[in-house]
Amino acid sequence: MGSKRLNRRELLKSGATLAGGFTLGAAAPALGQEQMPHASPPMIKGDTDGQIAYGDRSKHVKSVRIPHGGRPSPDAFGLIFHVATPLQDSVGVITPSSLHYWATTRGSFLPDIDPAQHSLLIHGLVDRPLTFTMQDLKRLPSVTRLHFIECAGNRSTPRAKTVQESHGMTSCAEWTGVLLSTLLKECGVKSSATWFVAEGAEEVKGASSMPVAKAMDDVIVAYGMNGEALRPQQGFPLRLLVPGFEGIFSTKYVRRIKLVDRYYMNYNDYGHLQKDAKEAALGYQWGPKSVITFPSVGQQLPGKGFYEISGLAWSGGGAIRRVEVSTDDGKHWMDAEIKMTAQRKAHTRFGCPWNWDGKETVLLSRCTDELGAVQPTRAQVAKFFNVPLGTVPGLDNTIQPWRIASDGSVQNGHA
Amino acid sequence: MGTHRFVACVLLGGVCLGASVLAQSAPKYGVGRTPTAEELRSADISIGPDGAELPPGRGTVKEGAQLFTSKGCVACHGANGTGGRAPELKSKDGPSVDTWKRGRILPVRAPFATTVWDYINRAMPLGREGTLKPDEVYSLTAYLLNLNEVIPEDLVLDAQSLPKVKMPIGDDYASLPDWKANTRRLKGYPY
After folding, report:
1. Neighbouring C-alpha atoms within 13 Å toward the C-beta of A217
2. Contacting residues of A for B34, CB less than 8 Å apart
3. DSSP string of A182-215, one letter each residue
4. What is the ipTM of this complex?
5. Which residue in chain B has the smallest CA separation from A107?
6. CA distance A26 to chain B (A)
7. Which among B28, B112, B183 has CB closest to A186?
8. Does the N-terminal or the C-terminal CB of chain B have fewer CB atoms within 10 Å?
9. What are the pLDDT digits (tens) for B100-146?
10. What is the pTM of this model?
11. Could A374 and B190 be called an inter-chain contact, meaning their C-beta atoms sit closer than 8 Å?
């Protein structure tokens, strides 16, 4: 307390010195205006809500989501299907909740759920089935973690004209909730339980089967996102957050979890079936993946000279340990700087200094996760699976080339 | 003396072990409410491969064909389950063609007939999900399975016969490998 007061006094003293003897409180606002060498910017005029109740962003910032994958949203049935995050405009690692990608299992209406009426039932192969209200859940020990979510359909194509089109079906947020393992221990999971089925409360009651081992590892029953309640598009009031798995498993509006003794083959499950065992093994969990967001396809470099190459790296296997960047189409690689401490199964921002000489070249990034898995090129994947170049079995975590033309335009290296 | 002490230790150990097992199974926070049997029954719409959760009821191909029109299915899926804006429900190819080459059509690709029942029951029809009665779901399932030559026209589907239906895919699909934390996805795959 004492030191705090002293600091404040010191601060006031130094401020008074800087103000050159003016009485600080009265003079400070006027001082800024008088000493400005140029005209003040206009005032933002808006409704009171925008300025007080819930802040708006500047009208000059126009970054928005777009429908993804060539399917219009809303579609022929008036349903929103997939919308993608504007990664080309992203800074840092947190996707603003308003810009988080949104995918629906079938094309879905947005349920308007009263949290007072919502509850989570856990039953099946447990000692004690239990129902938790939202109030119950908020009494229990919580976790707050950064995690990415990525749709299984997040595949880059030669047609992609922005990184939003090629990679925009992934986002990263800070999630708060109760670990599913906490709830399962409260119910007492029987040893015969090997899978669980999670089900949402939306109109189609979307359901997915997942291994109990994952539930006991790091699945969050989340009610918070980026410091506030979940957005309706993200499952308000309650969702599963299944770190590192295909996005569809992070069951939104979650209302029921049933412990079972086999893969249950409900709703979403049959769509996950694969004929090939290798392809099946590469489903579910994302491998190491990265992409350069600046400069990226569709952007324009004003001229040669210095740029910090910036991008995102993430992996379903854990934390990102290393990101390398090549500015000469893979002939040489240099370690990029990882900004902040890399979080497990979260977007990780990287940066790399680059002096562009104005000549045509190709930029690449590749990452390595804590398991030692390295992001592959499409050629490496094609060789491993003995498939034509460009075919990527399982989830697409391949390296994305961006071609820098001599006029500074950035083009899709897959094209 | 030595033997007695050994026995005592074993007994004591056994008691401690028993107590710790009990302690593990006991709730730690005591938060949450025990659902009633009726709540559990009505909430449980997850139909597993053995059909244990199937409700009583029955349905036929003929009734299913009528419902496919009267419930409005044709409006989105097309007459006979083909040519609509919604996903195809009838395969162009017959059972002689490899299932994996017949497209992702629910009543063909699903490994269990219970998967078809579960899907229709929870997610159809569009905008009126969850309104079909068990008899209607049995009938629509029968109609779609017969449409794709999976079951004969005279088979009555109920909680006993439905799980016994042999689907075209059989066991011709990859089983998922055991998932383990902090483990690479596919052994021998460097990426």
Report:
1. 20
2. 128-131
3. HHHHHH-B-TT--EEEEEE-STT--EEEEEHHHH
4. 0.87
5. B126
6. 55
7. B28
8. N
9. 999 899 999 999 999 999 999 999 998 899 999 999 999 999 999 99
10. 0.88
11. yes
